[in-house]
Automatic annotation (TrEMBL):
Cell compartments where the protein resides: Cell inner membrane
Protein topology in the membrane: Multi-pass membrane protein
Protein name: Multidrug-efflux transporter
NCBIfam families in the record: matE (TIGR00797)
Protein's organism: Stagnimonas aquatica
Domain of life: Bacteria
Transmembrane region(s): 16-36, 42-71, 92-109, 129-148, 160-182, 188-211, 236-260, 280-297, 318-342, 354-375, 382-401, 413-432
Pfam families named among the record's database cross-references: MatE
Gene Ontology molecular function, alphabetical: antiporter activity; xenobiotic transmembrane transporter activity
Keyword field: Antiport, Cell membrane, Ion transport, Membrane, Transmembrane, Transmembrane helix, Transport
Keyword Transmembrane included in the entry's annotation: yes
GO biological process, one term: monoatomic ion transport
One Gene Ontology cellular component: plasma membrane
Length: 446
């Protein structure tokens, strides 16, 4: 990706990433669509429990971003031995993280459900869902270790095939395990999580099988699994700011679930469905972020600084087009999309209002993601973290103040969120411009 048109490389990487991300989003959409047949408490329970996914994303990003940055730079410099070593170190690191998350998750799942759920019924259902959702999320660390190295060398197809296969299996298993079709156990919300666990496990096993047979020089070498603490610290130092961004996102979502508890399970269910729809629409921006990280990283490693700048420009143009289209859809037909997942009027109204207000920040959110991808490619994600942390001041504090006032309404939360994202975009782009001046040669010189 160090030669040829930048836009073509970005679009190629994005196309693979987009299909993969869409399949991951389908996990959430399939779960919520089937679970909605169990009632608003079940929807709220799965929504509250699934917020834990952002904690997983925070940790997996911490692991994966450093791997992508270092592998793409080593690959761009044609250092195959270093790429192989980084790959094996990444596997050891991801397995350690998976085991730690599994232990902590099971120890705190009941407390987590009780603190965020709007009522006792919702809390009980959330705990049931987490019993299988936690091990399913643990497997995502293994997917990160395998997929990040492949993404760093530009090999997108294996991960895509694994993800598509797993989502198809999830779609097949979910109704049987939720409702007990054809004699299968009727597990309710727990069945949705079990289906996700089995599907994710199949994806991990598929990638391991591929690496054992493929011609790529990425090979599992147990001798290289002994922790290289200096390298681990380096990978984590690159990935930690990016992971912290997802942790901040998890905290913000947790705050929202907490402040809207007085409005009941209907409000939490409406917000949960609206979030799933928004996440689905954001997939082009997320895919662009991952794509530009690899493209910028390889060109930065090869010393092609002007191409790094071009990778941001081309990705930003594509992002604006995608996000404007999604904004228009959410302005014109939010209730129609909500109606696919729930027939309860209050749930639909809450979700539709959320989408209508929050869609005003879609373009800004997409630009933030693209900038974050470039920061990853440059190997410095701290500026992106600083921009995300700004929302702790511009969103969290105002919402806590509003929630304590008489006459507090849900739409005030959505407006505060949209404004805070706009401010974050301004800061993120300013920091990216500063990073370009610090690390890249003048246009035309690199």
């Amino acid at each position: 990706m160090t030669t040829g048109p930048i836009r073509n490389h970005v679009l190629r990487m994005m196309s693979f990433m987009l299909v993969g991300m869409l399949t991951q989003t389908l996990y959430a959409l399939v779960d919520i669509w089937w679970v909605s047949r169990l009632g608003k408490e079940a929807i709220a329970a799965v929504s509250v429990a699934s917020n834990l996914m952002f904690v997983v994303l925070a940790v997996s990003q911490t692991l994966g971003v450093g791997v992508v940055a270092l592998v793409s730079q080593a690959f761009g410099a044609k250092n195959e031995r270093q790429v192989q070593y980084l790959f094996n170190q990444a596997q050891a690191q991801s397995i350690a993280a998976a085991l730690l998350f599994l232990l902590i998750g099971y120890a705190g799942k009941d407390y987590y459900a009780a603190r965020l759920a709007g009522d006792a019924i919702t809390a009980g259902l959330a705990s049931q869902f987490l019993a299988w959702f936690i091990p399913a999320q643990s497997l995502l660390f293994l997917m990160t270790g395998l997929g990040s190295a492949l993404r760093g060398i530009g090999a997108m197809k294996p991960g895509l095939i694994a993800q598509v296969g797993s989502v198809l299996l999830n779609m097949l298993l979910a109704p049987f395990l939720i409702f007990g079709w054809l004699g299968a156990p009727a597990l309710g919300v727990a069945g949705a999580a079990l289906a996700t666990f089995l599907a994710t496990l199949s994806a991990v096993l598929g990638l391991v099988w591929y690496l054992g047979r493929a011609s790529t020089y990425l090979r599992i070498d147990w001798a290289q699994w002994r922790p290289d603490w200096a390298l681990w610290r380096r990978m984590l130092s690159i990935g930690l700011p990016s992971g912290a961004e997802f942790l901040i996102m998890s905290l913000i979502l947790g705050l929202i679930y907490w402040v809207i508890r007085p409005f009941g399970a209907e409000a939490q269910a409406g917000f949960g469905i609206g979030m799933r729809i928004m996440q689905a629409g954001f997939m082009p921006a997320v895919a662009l972020s991952f794509a530009v990280a690899a493209v910028a990283g390889q060109n930065y490693g090869a010393g092609h600084h002007q191409r790094v700048r071009q990778s941001f420009t081309e990705s930003a143009k594509l992002n604006i087009g995608f996000m404007l289209l999604f904004t228009l859809v959410c302005q014109l037909a939010p209730a129609l999309m909500m109606g696919w997942f729930s027939s309860e009027p209050t749930v639909v109204t809450v979700g539709a209002d959320y989408l209508r207000y929050i869609s005003w920040n879609y373009v800004a959110s997409g630009l933030i993601m693209v900038a974050a991808g470039v920061f990853q490619g440059l190997g410095n994600t701290l500026p992106s973290l600083l921009a995300s942390a700004s929302r702790l001041l511009s969103f969290v504090l105002p919402v806590l103040w509003l929630a304590g006032r008489e006459g507090f309404q849900l739409h005030q939360v959505w407006i505060a969120s949209a404004i805070s994202v706009g401010l974050q975009m301004v800061l993120s782009l300013a920091l990216l411009r500063r990073e370009f001046r610090r690390k890249l040669t003048a246009p035309g010189a690199g």
